[in-house]
Amino acid sequence: MDDVVGAIADPVRREILVMLHGGRLTAGQIAGRFEISRPAVSRHLRVLRQSGLVRDELVGRERLYEIDPERLAPLAGWLAQFVRPRGWEHRFDALETEVHRTRRRRRADSAADEPKEDTA
């Protein structure tokens, strides 16, 4: 996970990942969107490739780059512990709590309604 964190520490590399999230791109297409030199973009791509976040494939004379989101999963899992559940996850937890509360209340009500045996 350290190599992934190191790779995404640079804002250019994060921007490249965002670009590749939309689909495969050549190095030239990626470099064309930055104000930095092509060799600098190549160095960023090499770091991303070495971390496993990006893979490349030679297609004809072009090398296409694509993101490998599976490498981000351990980092996302680690970060999730610091984020409160939002949306459906939080709502399902609240629903589960309410279901348990209702079941407990019904059991208590049905136990109170049962006729007691006259043992005397």
From TrEMBL:
Residues 1-87 form the HTH arsR-type domain. It holds the Pfam family HTH_5. The keyword Transmembrane helix does not apply. Residues 108-120 have a biased composition (Basic and acidic residues). Residues 99-120 are annotated as: Disordered. GO terms for molecular function: DNA binding; DNA-binding transcription factor activity. InterPro entries: ArsR-like_HTH, HTH_ArsR_DNA-bd_dom, HTH_MetalResp_TranReg, WH-like_DNA-bd_sf, WH_DNA-bd_sf. Keywords: DNA-binding, Transcription, Transcription regulation. This is DNA-binding transcriptional ArsR family regulator.
